[in-house]
Design goal:
With about 70 residues, this protein is mainly alpha-helical. The chain has one domain: Orthogonal Bundle (434 Repressor (Amino-terminal Domain)). About 60% of the residues lie in helices and about 0% in strands. Helix 2 packs across helix 3. It starts with a helix and ends in a 6-residue tail after the last helix.
């Protein structure tokens, strides 16, 4: 079973010791936006996927659950 983006985002954020607010600041969105992504109520655009993947040091495939870590 593949893990969803929302679950991976939450895991990676916590592993890196970031609050939703700090993550939002790092990628240039609001805390509400990060919360929405983690609840699977929305998905980031490709440009934000790149920023998130770079920040966490993973590929977009890993971030989106298409590949194992």
């Amino acid at each position: 079973m593949q893990v969803k983006f929302s679950e991976n985002l939450k895991i990676l954020r916590r592993e890196h010791g970031l609050s939703q607010g700090k993550l939002a600041e790092a990628v240039g969105v609001t805390q509400q936006c990060v919360s929405k992504w983690e609840r699977a109520d929305g998905e980031p655009t490709l440009s934000y996927l790149w920023k998130l993947a770079d920040l966490f040091g993973v590929s977009i495939d890993v971030l989106c659950g298409r590949k194992d870590w």
